[in-house]
From TrEMBL, chains A, B:
One of its GO terms (biological process) is inosine biosynthetic process. PANTHER family: ADENOSINE DEAMINASE, ADENOSINE DEAMINASE 2. Its main location: secreted. It is found in: Secreted. Belongs to the metallo-dependent hydrolases superfamily. Adenosine and AMP deaminases family. ADGF subfamily. GO terms for cellular component: extracellular space. This is Adenosine deaminase. It is an enzyme of class 3 (hydrolase). It comes from Collybia nuda.
Length: 528, 528
């Protein structure tokens, strides 16, 4: 070896050491890969590289300048054309740990459910016309039989603003110039989802997109918070999750409304009934899976109790007590407690510190254990109240952090997450559509990974974003990195079970099932 | 104290400790603030908060949904309306450590210089018309007297594509339908700068904006690489830098072209003559400052030798030898060596490793010391060749890192930067316009600060971006954080001197002058 050659060899060795050192915290390199996994990893990386230079480098009529990990709402149709997406759709995803129940079911499906309900009515603050159809939001509500409306249409000039019209009539009589019944569907779906123009143009700032985002929940609440729809909504959520390879769910349910509207149109179904329904549907779906010999594909679902961070600290006390009461009656269902809503605008955790500290004392008294699983740091703020929520979530002993987008700014917090096993529920597509980043390559996920912070990828609000299941989120992450590969996705899936609220026995059981599924998946990748 | 109160007090104490711990690496908290600085800090924070809720919350006709730290090219006019900008424009900035000389002078000024030169000619590949004026780029070149052209216009149908027209004629005869001479100016300026539509619409991906960005350098080279213009260009750069409170400069000069065009139109002025010119203008400007009793405001300027990372490793050897020769002749001028250009597309450092290792050996032989000051990690890639440049820059012993945008992904690299004092030349506005982030709140700067990585804020290519001086970059950083304040900017300014290539005696001298300027600045803030 000449001196230049030995210099080079020495350099390459130092380089390998530095890279290894830099990546030593990564969780996806801790377990060795099987020979089949090594093969599958290479296959997936080759397909990724090929598609990066074909599908993602061509100009498409409707998608100018595409690239891997581009804006989801614009790139979605290209994603569906990839081989990578097909492969990932078959991947066993483990658990879905961050999804808001009222934003989990395809909006078209929800509308179909709604159209079967004669009790459901719609009203608008002014007659719908061609010029206002894109900005007027429908308000839905189930009415008691004696209040059913005779009004026929929300598009006729004779419509009296604020009058309820049955949803079936409103659809049938939707003006032909507005597209008739199909126009009605489009109008409602538009109010339930964020479209690319809104995300990337008219509402492209964080403040503006949150206005639109929040409005979708107000619209959908009128449909979902209705006893005949609620179980069917949950059933569809479970069904489509299973189809996407999700075996376990911890769903956040918004308990802000203290009651739900019953079949009779009366607003009087209390929270405990919601849980009875949830439990019933869960059992039915699991029974059904069992009958098909597929019980391993869906081991269960739990609820993270949430309310919204605009209530007063005094009001919060009611919800905390409610949560404890539900936990005592349904110990197998209540998995944790959280406060949700736009952190940039709403009340920070520090302002709730008194009731939250008291909550822990009350749990001891009542002999229950309800971990906090807080949203925190879903923000671009640096030292803002929303960013500071991360400190309080940690100090309050949060089991996981919802989003934790700003955690990467905090070296000490990342250390604590790694050392104490506090996983982050990272929602890549949600973060991008809500304008924390403009595309996936901007997402700070690689920082979390290189710091050894456990991550469970999540979909957040798929009915609003159109990222049903977890495949889209896994896809966006995989194509935006050359470090991450199939073994990174494996780690996400495994960690989603590892950092769930399952007890150690349940966890062991779940992971054993998942590992079996994973092996079959890898065999599938290698053999095709 | 009741038990709740003591719980709360204990909580607040733990919280303060965690926050202090999390921020303990920050460089801006190491030195205590003077009473005047504490006052000034508060004044600046109050103005920032006020303007965030006034100027940045109102809808403006030309700026929909503004926010602090928004897209620079759209928000620039609002920035100019703020009190904060006026204050920062008076702040002593210390050193400018990252700027490409050929992109440092206002484009209108460059055009004015050019229009005084009868030797300068322009040509285009086809006649300029209303439909192509926005896409056709001018090519400029100084011609020898015997090749001066008689052609009159680039907008007449009789124009023969590719024919040189004197710049003076081309301007005078620019078709009135295209705006006449003013239209000519607009056309040229448009080719020298990136406009908001390009950055945020037509070229809003990294790949597309780099195409536009690169094209501006090709256009300007035809004007700047001309002996009569070069010194005036440098003089203006120094002059405007001084006006903005910059006291010392390390400018990157692109030595890719081995010669410059002389006054006689012959392309034969070698690199050493460029340095003679640089030195002469520097001395003249410093003499002039001295005559005004202002010598402390400009203590000097040096050159970082750069060439472009598309040359072969063999070609690089010529430049490295050239750099050594220049260093021997002008030891006070050559400050370092760098390779520049779009890292996402061009050759990574690892491919140049042989000549770069040899460079160090050759320096020893020649008894010179030329530190590497590498661009590295100016990318969103994760494990891409551009991202991996960060490892090689470190292993090659880089003194600072240009951009280092992806350094935040690498915990070990941040540790090394902190421990070894490797500063990052962070160019916030450049990063945003070149689409690494969409606005300042997305910029990873806070991560660097909380990890104790030294940072020198820089402007990169102000003639292309319109961020002349350093005030705009300081502004964007200040309004995008609630942790950072005036003391953070103080640290940037001080660190720009601390991590310059000045020797320890020069550094001590520079910092003493700067500290005096800083005190006056703080007095100014407090007294008005």
């Amino acid at each position: 070896m000449s001196s230049t050659e030995s210099d080079l060899a020495e350099y390459q060795e130092r380089r390998a050491t530095l890279i290894r050192d830099d990546r030593s915290y990564r969780r996806d390199i801790q377990a060795p890969l099987s020979p089949a996994e090594i093969k599958a990893e290479k296959i997936v990386r080759d397909i990724r590289a090929l598609e990066a230079s074909t599908i993602w480098k061509q100009e498409h009529a409707s998608v100018p300048h595409p690239f891997p990990g581009m804006e989801f709402l614009t790139g979605r149709n290209l994603i569906l054309q990839t081989k990578l997406f097909k492969i990932l759709s078959k991947m066993p995803k483990g658990a879905l740990l961050h999804a808001h129940l009222d934003a989990t079911v395809n909006s078209e499906f929800l509308l179909k459910l709604a159209l079967q309900q004669p009790a459901l009515h719609v009203k608008v603050p002014q007659t719908i016309t061609l010029s206002n159809v894109d900005s007027i939001l429908p308000e839905f509500r189930a009415l008691p039989l004696d209040q059913y409306s005779n009004a026929l249409s929300v598009t006729e000039t004779s419509y009296e603003p604020g009058t309820w019209v049955s949803i079936q009539n409103a659809r049938a009589a939707f003006d032909p110039s507005l597209g008739g019944p199909t126009g009605f569907d489009k109008w409602v779906i538009g109010a339930l989802m964020i479209n690319p123009t809104e995300a990337y143009n008219t509402h492209s700032t964080i403040a503006k997109i949150w206005e639109k985002f929040t409005s979708t929940f107000i619209v959908s609440a009128g449909l979902i918070r209705f006893a005949p729809i609620f179980p069917e909504y949950i059933r569809e959520f479970f069904k489509t999750s299973i189809e996407d390879g999700i075996m376990y769910i911890e769903a956040r349910i918004n308990f802000l409304y203290k009651t739900m509207i019953g079949e009779d149109g009366e607003d009087n179904i209390p929270h405990r009934e919601w849980l009875v329904t949830f439990d019933r549907v869960l059992n039915e779906v699991q029974e059904n899976m069992k009958r098909q010999g597929r019980e391993g594909e869906f081991i269960g679902a739990r609820i993270i109790y949430t309310t919204i961070r605009f209530i007063t600290p005094e009001e919060l006390e009611w919800y905390l007590e409610d949560c404890i009461a539900l936990k005592k009656e349904f110990p197998h269902l209540i998995a944790g407690f959280d406060l949700v809503g736009n952190e940039n605008e709403l009340i920070p955790l520090i302002d709730y510190i008194q009731p939250l500290l008291k909550f822990r004392a009350r749990q001891k008294e009542e002999g229950v254990d309800i971990p906090f699983i807080f949203h925190a740091g879903e923000t671009l703020g640096d030292g803002s109240a929303a960013d500071m929520n991360v400190y309080d979530a940690i100090l309050l002993g949060t089991k996981r952090i919802g989003h934790g987008y700003s955690v990467v700014k905090h070296p000490k917090i990342m250390d604590l997450c790694r050392e104490r096993g506090i996983a982050l529920e990272v929602c890549p597509i949600s973060n991008e559509i809500l304008r924390l980043c403009s595309s996936m390559p901007m997402h700070p996920l690689p920082i979390l990974l290189n710091n050894g912070v456990p991550v469970a990828l999540s979909s957040d609000d798929p009915s609003v974003f159109g990222n049903m299941g977890l495949t889209f989120d896994f896809f966006q992450v995989l194509v935006s990195s050359e470090v991450s590969g199939l073994s990174t996705l494996r780690q996400f899936a495994r960690d989603s079970l590892e950092f769930s609220t399952l007890n150690s026995e349940e966890k062991q059981h779940a992971i054993a099932i998942w590992e079996h599924q994973w092996e079959s998946f890898i065999e599938g990748v290698v053999s095709t």
